[in-house]
Amino acid sequence: MSPDGAHIAFRRADLTYDGMLGREIWIMRSDGGDQIKVAADNGSRVGTPTWSPDAKRIAYVRTTLAYDAPARSVEVNEWENASAQTLFSDLA
């Protein structure tokens, strides 16, 4: 739930043999309307979204699975403007 109570951010996930993998992040109005996909899987999984205090951005961890080790990055998404930015990453 956003700090102002107007929106809800949630993950849509796939159920796999080892648990649920977050594939997308969506935001909707608190009445369930106007669902917007703000982060797609693009071969990775996304963590639980966290709201900024002003409710204009969400942050989440994106994990890309590789054959040798997972790579993680923290993204901040200005969901109303469809703009995501990587803050830091452990990618080489």
Any overview of this molecule?
- By secondary structure, the protein is an all-beta fold.
- It has one domain (7-89).
- It contains no helices and eight strands.
- The chain has strands at 7-16, 19-29, 36-39, 44-46, 50-51, 58-64, 71-78, 83-89.
- Strands 4, 5, 6, 7 and 8 form a five-stranded antiparallel sheet that branches. A three-stranded antiparallel sheet has the order 1-2-3, with no helix packed on it.
- A hairpin with a 6-residue loop joins strand 5 (50-51) and strand 6 (58-64).
- The chain is globular and about 40 Å long.
- The N and C termini lie far apart (34 Å).
- 16% of the residues are buried.
- The mean pLDDT is 85.
Shape: globular
Query: What is the helical fraction, as a range of percent?
Result: under 10%
Give the termini distance in whole angstroms: 34 Å
Largest β-sheet summary: 5 strands, antiparallel
What count of helical segments does DSSP give? 0
CA radius of gyration is 14 Å
Mean pLDDT score: 85
Q: Bin the strand percentage.
A: over 45%
| Overall domain count | 1
Total number of beta strands: 8
Unreliable runs: none
Query: Helices and strands, in N-to-C order?
Result: EEEEEEEE
How does the helix and strand content classify structurally? mainly beta
